[in-house]
Amino acid sequence: MGEKLGKKWEIRFHGRGGQGAVTASKILAEAAYLSGFEAQSIPFFGAERRGAPVMAFTRVSYEAIHERSQVYTPDYVIVLDPIILDAVDVFRGLKDGGSIVINTVKSPMDFQFEQGSLLVATVDATGIAIKNNLLVAGTPVVNMPMLGAFLKIFSHIELETLEEVVMKKFGKNGKANVAAVREAYESTVVEKVRGSGKPSTEDVRRKRAVTMPVSTPSPGVAGRTRFWRDFRPEVDYDVCSNCLSCWLHCPESAIQRVGSRIEIDYEFCKGCLVCSAVCPKKAIRVSREVVV
Amino acid sequence: MKSNTTRAVRIITGNQAAALAAKNAKVRVVAAYPITPATPVVEELSKMVETGEMKAHFILVESEHSAMAACIGASAAGSRTFTATSSHGLAYMHELLHYATNARTPVVMAVANRAIGPGWNIWADLSDSISQRDTGWMQFYCSDNQEIYDTIIMAYRIAEHRDVLLPAMVCYDGFVLSHTAMPIEITDVNDFIDEYHPVWRLDFDEPSTHGNILPPDYFMELRREVCEAHERALKVMKEVEREFYEYSGRLTPLILEEYRLEDADVAMVTMGAISSEAKIAVDELRKRGVKAGLLRLKAFRPFPKQEVVEKLGSVEKVYVFDRSVSPGFDGQLFSELKAVLWDLRSPPEVYGRIVGLGGRDVTSRVFEKAVLGELDKKWVMEVIY
Ligand code: SF4
Ligand code: SF4
After folding, report:
1. Pairing of strands A76-79, A99-103
2. Domain B7-248 is classified in which CATH homologous superfamily?
3. Whose CA is nearest to atom 5 of ligand 1?
4. What is the pLDDT of residues B140-186, one digit of tens each?
5. What ipTM is given for this predicted complex?
6. SS3 B121
7. How many H helices and E strands in chain A?
8. Residue B221 touches chain A, beta carbons under 8 Å
9. Which terminus of chain A has a lower count of CB atoms within 10 Å, N or C?
């Protein structure tokens, strides 16, 4: 293994709470370990709730891993959710010449970034998850097909090793997950894509000085939470009695009183469906959010 | 400000001085729970509120934890707030002491220092407040009753200063000061301290959330700001000390007090009531030809690093006396002193002595003997008279 000394790969997962990014990072670490590597899986716990952006990291190495920090300059990025591209800079810190796997129906050439060039892999993991009936509470769980897609560009773990771990992890759902892994592996499109090659200088994120732990109300303190939404609540005004129960209970204050009726602000509605649950008139219809 | 003060000398206990200071400092909310030896402060205040002599709300609570919670709430709502406690009561407040700091609520609290049990003991020992050292509260240690009165009043001016916004403890030895009566001047401070004008407050008309979630990206900024406020407080303390001197004619130190230190070879370092006894020892030692001096720390937090280094820069030996101990290490003041003096190119020799725990009496002879090399053990167990 002499020439391999010091060789190590860092992988960053982006997803939304509930999509299984943390599970994916752990299963990848297990498959790496079974393949003879040292491995580590780190979840990043923010204030996430179902639907909020989350990250997880996996390190794979020939040698003992001493890092305990997060991954800032990954060799690989895995994006579980196409919607997240709007809200999070998934390319941030990704090494020039590195690779990114994106769950999308688009093709690799559709993505722009500041690196000189990247290996871009795309896969319709959502479609594959639906086809294989990998749904939890109606939401397609794409983490396993995304690992299948990842192995297309990461050759140090055998597909069979990953399948073995997946089988063990999912018990009676193992078969469906393994099928999805394989299907994703086979349908992933990989291309070398050129970027602008002009990284923006320095991180310009400015921090407000925090002197007093006081926050004044503003819509969407958690940011624009519209993209957290898997389900869309809609008020049927013919049935609504304007009792204001939903207005009172909405945790994001996304329901406003406008004139003599209530209105849902879809920029900030995160799709938790508390409003629908508390409505005494059953006036709030729920449908799947249409992803554009 | 003019110094047209109305002088009125009364012979009162430390606890009464604390209660009167709170009243005269225009405290508008008191939330407190009785505990020996701070109980008389609470009794005095409730009496004055009941008779209308003091215009304040007295919030009845069922514990010290609740007392501090109520103080934080009242302070956040824009009221000048006071409480008093001791020993186990202070320990029970611990969680909320941290809260008051990060919330930047300038509550002022009197602490009648007492040991913590078991080995039930109600007597003087600084362990209760010293073990709250890292809560972010400013801490002042008094050595007589006049100081208790003056310091509580000045503490509000410091705590509420825009550059500071930190809570403050004014500490004094249980019984030794809390129950000992001495003449003190009850200066009318009407023109020294105004009604409280908060920089920020909870307001029904402009709602805001207090103490919201602060993720890793921001929390460190908040903590650094608390630390910088402590540094700024030292400057504010100097200003308030001078202003109070001009107003009352009394130079009541807020940071430190020195006694015959200018040409000293040996310095004693103390806090609290035992400092008075140490002054007697300085005079005795000088009579015997030993060039001794005293440095009394009034402020333990913020710790006046620079000032201490300046004062002790040219002495040969330093004896630090702690009326508290950190089991597993040393007296806390001793540890801090060594850390600070380490900055000097050629630091003096520093020795630590543990004295007076749980109310064991400390006389001037203890200091004398220590400096003369007649007490070479860390623990001074005997009462020497
Ligand atoms: S689903 Fe309803 S309760 Fe939940 S955020 Fe949207 S509007 Fe508010
Ligand atoms: S809870 Fe239902 S009935 Fe009441 S205001 Fe909301 S939508 Fe209308």
Report:
1. parallel
2. Thiamin diphosphate (ThDP)-binding fold, Pyr/PP domains (3.40.50.970)
3. A269
4. 999 999 999 999 999 999 999 999 999 999 999 999 999 999 999 99
5. 0.71
6. coil
7. 7, 14
8. yes
9. C
